[in-house]
Amino acid sequence: MKQLLNGTFQGTVRVPGDKSITHRALMLGALSEGTTQIYRPLISADTLRTFENMRQLGAEVTQEGDDFKVVSKGHDHLISPDAVLYTGNSGTTTRLITGLLAGLNNITASVEGDATIAKRPMDRVVIPLSEMGADISLKDGRYPPVNIHPAVLKPLEYDMPVASAQVKSAILFAGLFTDGETIVRETHQSRNHSEIMMGQFGADISVSGTTVKLQGGKKLSASDVTVPGDISSAAFLIVLALITKDADITIENVSLNETRSGIIDVVKACGGKLTITERDSKGEKFGDIRVQYTPDLKPFHISGDIIPRLIDEIPILTVLAVFADGESTVRGAEELRFKETDRITAVIAELTKFGVSFEEYEDGFKVKPGYKKVKQDELFKGYHDHRIIMMLIVMAAAANTNIEIDDQSAIDVSFPSFVSDLEGLRKDR
Ligand SMILES: O=C(O)C1=C[C@@H](OP(=O)(O)O)[C@@H](O)[C@H](O)C1
Ligand SMILES: C=C(OP(=O)(O)O)C(=O)O
């Protein structure tokens, strides 16, 4: 499909709801007794998998206009599904639901996704869950399908070998109804939406630094959730605004949760013109972000603690690096190799087609600024990875060129309105 999204981008927009928060609200709604209203959730391919999976487990889940409603009698009324729980392209659904099902003690289920999920490691959640007593088997000991059989779990004390909110959350979901205290320690803090939301639903959970403690056995009660806009989706518009002439975009009601806002720190360090107006919030922080074209962006060097705070934004931040006035580096980001595709390989392969030069490392890369004219008839690959496809569309818009991407349908995974939102912001030159 050809891209025709070049121009000047100006105006105010609201990006779709946060994907991580939407998945968790659907799951916690299903586990809790009562009615959970989820306002402004992300309605996308990935979150609709969790929506459908919760229905298969016996919760009453409906879409009402732009909102979701979950009605449940509580965790002990959920049932074994009579068909495979299909998780599509969603790693979050696959890993979190594995923890949730293991924790229910009485469920037999099989969890399976698309071709990208078939290659994503699940042993990272199954190892700690097995330590808790779960009876789970994987293909080749590592990959989906995930087959879960009933087993009574005990609490766990676990030092996380990788910075992964999905692993942390799977353990916490499994620990919710065990008899005792589950403790998870992280080396670098990953997103904390599960901790915040479990507290709101009545779990006995506390956080001190990078240690989470969850006392199992508390009955959860339904709670309404208002989902802020997804900063990982906003990231594409933030970078687009910084690098395209005369751009001035305001993105309203975006999550500003500090475990997710690494991109804001990077943009500020690069000297990007960005203004934040925080709004009042309990629990999850959110606000408006205004971003303006910044012709003299400085390069960035990221590694360590900041990586989990911007892990999904690294592809689009690489485009920012192309427009900076020096070499940028990304290190400590080996987790990128375990996403929908190996994102280090994919970013380098596709941006190289724009003439960008890289030095690749196992855990990241060095990128030189500048790009060249794309060869005629060059075909770009999207790898069924929404973040790679949107990165390419932004790069093409900033390079004022039209490119052809083999398949861009995966945009629906996290940002179904991406192309129409860009069209809405585009003013003819
Ligand atoms: O917990 C979550 O909602 C997510 C955690 C991250 O994955 P990891 O836990 O694998 O780092 C992130 O990349 C993913 O998009 C969503
Ligand atoms: C990696 C991502 O999601 P998931 O792990 O849920 O597939 C993402 O949204 O970039």
Automatic annotation (TrEMBL):
Residues 9-422 form the Enolpyruvate transferase domain. GO terms for cellular component: cytoplasm. The active site is at D312 (proton acceptor). It comes from the Bacteria. Phosphoenolpyruvate binds at K19, G91, R120, Q166, R343, R387. Pathway: Metabolic intermediate biosynthesis; chorismate biosynthesis; chorismate from D-erythrose 4-phosphate and phosphoenolpyruvate: step 6/7. PANTHER family: AROM/DEHYDROQUINATE SYNTHASE, PENTAFUNCTIONAL AROM POLYPEPTIDE. Belongs to the EPSP synthase family. Catalyzes the transfer of the enolpyruvyl moiety of phosphoenolpyruvate (PEP) to the 5-hydroxyl of shikimate-3-phosphate (S3P) to produce enolpyruvyl shikimate-3-phosphate and inorganic phosphate. This is 3-phosphoshikimate 1-carboxyvinyltransferase. It comes from Jeotgalicoccus halotolerans.
